[in-house]
Write a structure and sequence with these properties.
The chain is built from 4 helices and 8 strands, in the order αββββαββαββα. The protein is an alpha+beta fold. A hairpin with a 4-residue loop joins β5 and β6. The relative contact order is 0.21.
C-alpha cells in the first residue's frame, strides 16, 4: 500500500471524533450508533466509553465481532475497520480514561458501576478515496 494512502487513512481517523460503531444483535442483524472515540493507537486500537447498561455493551459481551466506520463526506473518503470489541469494567482502566465532564454521563464518578470502557482491536480494513484498498491492519504497520 502506498505511503500516501496510509497517511490519508490516519488523517481521517485523527480528524474524526464521531465514529459509527457496529455490533451484532441477538437476531443476527447489525446495529449501528455514533460514539466518541476516547483514544486511538494508529489504525489498530480504539477506545470508547459507554454505559454497562447500554444495548451494545450487552451485544459485545455476547458477540465481540464489531466494525467501526469513519467518513469524510466533504472529500468522499471512508474507512471501515472490522475486528473485535472488548468491555472493561475494572476501576484501573476506567480511572485511566476518566476526564472532567464525564460525570455528566456517569454521575457516580470513575468507579460508577454503569461506566465501562470499550477497546476495539482492528483486524481488517476497507478504505476508499481515490481508489479502493482492502487490507489486513497488521500488514500495513504504523
Amino acid at each position: 500500500m502506498e505511503e500516501q494512502v496510509k497517511k490519508d487513512m490516519l488523517k481521517l481517523v485523527d480528524q474524526n471524533r464521531d465514529i459509527i460503531v457496529c455490533s451484532i444483535a441477538e437476531n443476527g442483524f447489525p446495529n449501528a450508533k455514533s460514539m466518541f472515540k476516547a483514544k486511538h493507537e494508529g489504525l489498530k486500537t480504539f477506545w470508547f466509553s459507554t454505559n454497562v447498561s447500554a444495548v451494545r455493551t450487552s451485544q459485545w459481551l455476547k458477540q465481540p465481532k464489531a466494525c467501526i466506520y469513519f467518513l469524510d463526506s466533504e472529500n468522499i473518503h471512508g474507512l471501515m475497520l472490522t475486528g473485535h470489541m472488548e468491555v472493561f469494567t475494572d476501576n484501573e482502566t476506567k480511572l485511566a480514561f476518566w476526564k472532567p465532564g464525564d460525570e455528566m454521563y456517569y454521575p457516580l464518578g470513575p468507579t460508577d458501576p454503569d461506566y465501562c470502557m470499550l477497546r476495539f482491536t482492528a483486524e481488517e480494513g476497507n478504505y476508499w478515496g481515490l481508489g479502493k484498498y482492502l487490507f489486513s491492519v497488521d500488514s500495513i504497520g504504523e
